[in-house]
Automatic annotation (TrEMBL):
<feature type="binding site">
    <location>
        <position position="80"/>
    </location>
    <ligand>
        <name>ATP</name>
    </ligand>
</feature>
<keyword id="KW-0436">Ligase</keyword>
<dbReference type="Pfam" id="PF02222">
    <property type="entry name" value="ATP-grasp"/>
</dbReference>
<feature type="binding site">
    <location>
        <begin position="153"/>
        <end position="156"/>
    </location>
    <ligand>
        <name>ATP</name>
    </ligand>
</feature>
<dbReference type="InterPro" id="IPR013815">
    <property type="entry name" value="ATP_grasp_subdomain_1"/>
</dbReference>
<feature type="domain" description="ATP-grasp">
    <location>
        <begin position="84"/>
        <end position="267"/>
    </location>
</feature>
<keyword id="KW-0658">Purine biosynthesis</keyword>
<dbReference type="InterPro" id="IPR005875">
    <property type="entry name" value="PurK"/>
</dbReference>
<dbReference type="InterPro" id="IPR040686">
    <property type="entry name" value="PurK_C"/>
</dbReference>
<comment type="function">
    <text>Catalyzes the ATP-dependent conversion of 5-aminoimidazole ribonucleotide (AIR) and HCO(3)(-) to N5-carboxyaminoimidazole ribonucleotide (N5-CAIR).</text>
</comment>
<feature type="binding site">
    <location>
        <position position="120"/>
    </location>
    <ligand>
        <name>ATP</name>
    </ligand>
</feature>
<dbReference type="InterPro" id="IPR016185">
    <property type="entry name" value="PreATP-grasp_dom_sf"/>
</dbReference>
<comment type="subunit">
    <text>Homodimer.</text>
</comment>
<feature type="binding site">
    <location>
        <begin position="125"/>
        <end position="131"/>
    </location>
    <ligand>
        <name>ATP</name>
    </ligand>
</feature>
<keyword id="KW-0067">ATP-binding</keyword>
<protein>
    <recommendedName>
        <fullName>N5-carboxyaminoimidazole ribonucleotide synthase</fullName>
        <ecNumber>6.3.4.18</ecNumber>
    </recommendedName>
</protein>
<comment type="similarity">
    <text>Belongs to the PurK/PurT family.</text>
</comment>
Length: 355
C-alpha cells in the first residue's frame, strides 16, 4: 500500500483519507501542531490541504521532504500579492487591485479603485475573515496595522459567483469539472450547485484560464479557481492550490470526486475526465449542531467533520445528486424543516437554480 502524507488534518485531509481507501492509498493527514516524528520514506509523496502553514515541528518535517508535490506553488498562491501579480502576468482577468504599502492612504485607493474598495489581508484570510471594506470616501482610512500586509481590490458588481475545479497530472494533462455556481454570504460559502446548462458557454474560458495557471506553475493535483461572472466575462477572485469546498458536490455527483482526483494525480495514477451524473447541490453546515434526522431526507449524503460547533465555523456539508431537479427540490424542502431558519436563504437560492 503506498502512503501519501497530507500537511494538515482538517476536514479536507480527512476526506482525502476517506477517498484513498478504495485506491489502496494510505493517506495520512498530519496535524500541523504535532510534535511527533513521522516515518517519511523517500518514495512517499507529501501534499497539503491548506496553502499556508506556521513553522512547527510537523510542518518542518513535511515541507523539507523532497517529494512534497507543488512545494514551490504554495508560497506564490498563499500571498495575495504574489497571487494577483501572477494572474496579471499571465494576462488573466481579475478585479483591479494594488498593494497597500506603508504610505498608501484611503483617498488614493478610492481615486484609483472607486467608491467601494475591499482590503484583503495578504495571507491567512479565509471564509471572509481578513477583509475590511472602505466604503466612505473622504471619511474612511486604512487600519494602521494593515499597511504592508494587505492588498486593495475594486468592489466588483458581479452577477454571480462560480468556481471551476481542475486537475493536472505530472504529464501535464488537465481535466476539469463543470463550473460550480456558489452562494457566499458575508464571505462564507453556504451552498453550491453544478452543473447548470446555462453556464456551459463559460466552461471553455474557465478551463483556459485555470489550465494556463496550472501549466505555468507545472502544478500536479487539484486546483480551484473562484470567479465572478460579470455578464459573459469571468474575473478571477482567488485560487486555491488544493481540494476546495466548492468541489465537495463531486463526492455525490461525479464518478471521481475531487479528493480521488487529487490523490490520483499525486500518486501518479491514471487521470481521466470524470463523468458527472446529475445536477448536484451542496449545503454547507455552518455553526449548526448535528441532527441525525438529516439522514432521513431521501438522497441526503452527510459529511460531518467532527469539529467543535462554533458560530461561523464550517462543521459539515450535505450533498444531493438526485435524478431530477424536482426530486432535489422536494429533498431541500424536507431538509429545510430540519435546519435552523437562517438556512432558508441558501435553500431558496438552491431551489431557484433548479427551476
Ligand atoms: P475563502 O473562504 O473562499 O478562501 P476568502 O476569505 O479567502 O474566502 P475571498 O474569496 O477573497 O476571501 O472573498 C470572500 C467573498 O467576498 C467572495 O466570495 C465574494 O463574495 C466577496 N468578495 C471578494 N472580493 C470581492 C470584490 N473584489 N468585490 C466584491 N466582492 C468581493
Ligand atoms: Mg481564500
Ligand atoms: Mg474565496
Amino acid at each position: 500500500m503506498s502512503r501519501i502524507w497530507v500537511l494538515g488534518a482538517g476536514q479536507l485531509g480527512q476526506m482525502l483519507k476517506h477517498a484513498g481507501m478504495p485506491l489502496n492509498l494510505d493517506v495520512q493527514p498530519v496535524d500541523i501542531e504535532s510534535e511527533d516524528t513521522f516515518p517519511l520514506q523517500a518514495h512517499e509523496q507529501v501534499t497539503a490541504e491548506r496553502e499556508q502553514w506556521p513553522e512547527t515541528a510537523a510542518t518542518r518535517q513535511l515541507a523539507s521532504h523532497p517529494a512534497f508535490v507543488n512545494l514551490q506553488t504554495f508560497p506564490i498562491l498563499a500571498d495575495r500579492f504574489t497571487q494577483k501579480s501572477l494572474i496579471d502576468e499571465l494576462e488573466l482577468a481579475t478585479a483591479p487591485w494594488q498593494l497597500v504599502d506603508n504610505d498608501t492612504d484611503a483617498n488614493a485607493l478610492h481615486e484609483k479603485l472607486g467608491e467601494r474598495v475591499l482590503l484583503k489581508r495578504r495571507t491567512g484570510g479565509y471564509d471572509g475573515r481578513g477583509q475590511h471594506w472602505l466604503r466612505e470616501p473622504g471619511r474612511d482610512a486604512v487600519p494602521a496595522d494593515w499597511h504592508e500586509l494587505a492588498i486593495a481590490e475594486q468592489a466588483i458588481d458581479f452577477d454571480e459567483e462560480m468556481s471551476v475545479v481542475g486537475m493536472r497530472g505530472a504529464d501535464g494533462q488537465c481535466f476539469f469539472y463543470p463550473l460550480t455556481l456558489n452562494l457566499h454570504v458575508n464571505g462564507i460559502l453556504l451552498g453550491s450547485v453544478a452543473p447548470l446548462a446555462r453556464l456551459a458557454h463559460l466552461q471553455s474560458e474557465a478551463e483556459r484560464m485555470l489550465g494556463k495557471l496550472m501549466d505555468h506553475l507545472d502544478y500536479v493535483g487539484v486546483m480551484a479557481m473562484e470567479c465572478f461572472r460579470v455578464g459573459d466575462r469571468l474575473l478571477i477572485n482567488e485560487l486555491a492550490p488544493r481540494v476546495h469546498n466548492s468541489g465537495h458536490w463531486t463526492q455525490a455527483g461525479a464518478n471521481i470526486s475531487q479528493f480521488e482526483a487529487h490523490l490520483r494525480a499525486v500518486a501518479k495514477l491514471p487521470l481521466v475526465q470524470p463523468t458527472v451524473k446529475n445536477t448536484s447541490v451542496m449545503v454547507n453546515l455552518v455553526g449548526t449542531e448535528r441532527n441525525d434526522a438529516w439522514l432521513s431526507v431521501p438522497g441526503a449524503e452527510l459529511y460531518w467533520y467532527g469539529k467543535e460547533v462554533r458560530p461561523g465555523r464550517k462543521v459539515g456539508h450535505i450533498n444531493f445528486s438526485l435524478d431530477s431537479h424536482a426530486d432535489t427540490k422536494v429533498a431541500l424542502d424536507q431538509l429545510q424543516s430540519l435546519l435552523p431558519v437562517n438556512y432558508v436563504e441558501v435553500l431558496n437560492w438552491l431551489r431557484s437554480q433548479l427551476d
